[in-house]
Amino acid sequence: MQNHADKQEQVLSQITERNIEGRDFSGCDLSGIDLRGIDLSKINFRGADLRSANLSGAILTGANLREANLQQVNFCDADLSQADLTQANLCGACLWRVQLSGSKLWGASLCNADLREANLSAAQLIEASLVEANLVRANLTNAKLCGSVLVEANFNQANLTGADLKWANLMAANFSEANLENANFKNAKLYETIMPDGTIRVDIRR
Predict the structure, then answer these.
(1) How far apart are the C-alpha atoms of 196 and 88, rounded to whole Å?
(2) Under 8 Å CB-to-CB from 137, ≥6 apart: which residues?
(3) Which end of the chain is less enclosed by CB atoms within 10 A, N or C?
(4) 193-194 and 200-201 as β-strands: parallel, antiparallel, unpaired?
(5) CA 106 to each of CA 14, 66, 129, 148: distance values in angstroms, whole numbers, following the listed order
(6) How confident is the model over 164-192, as pLDDT tens digits?
(7) pLDDT tens figures, 18-75
């Protein structure tokens, strides 16, 4: 019977082979694995356990990470463009400067995630949870955040041009110096929400 280290070594040997596109690692225990800078485009990690893994600088364009456990993963400078992260758990993950343009994050959990300077343009964050997430200087142009929970999230200097925030919970969220041009706040809940000009909204619309 293989132990955890042997299984990871086997996975690493497969990943470093040529023509790995489309390989299936769904449901695998890859917690703590080091995959820095590796091209993992379109690989299937659905339901995999990647807790505390190092994926900094990795290329995961089009990868399947649905329902994966990605808590505390280091994704710094990684490319997750067009990746599927539906219902993935990214709590406490480092997503600094990550590329998430066009990615699917429906129902994903990003509580306390570090998304500073991340590119989330046109990302789908519908009904996602970003409680206390750090989105300072993030690019959320045309992002879909309908029904998302953004309580105490920090959007300082973020770009939310054209973002859809309908029905979102924005209680105590910080939008100071953020660009909210053409953003849609219809039926959003705003209470103690800091607006771009520094004023605090105290009304609840829901």
Answers:
(1) 30
(2) 116, 117, 156, 157, 158
(3) N
(4) antiparallel
(5) 30, 10, 9, 9
(6) 999 999 999 999 999 999 999 999 999 99
(7) 556 668 999 999 999 999 999 999 999 999 999 999 999 999 999 999 999 999 999 9
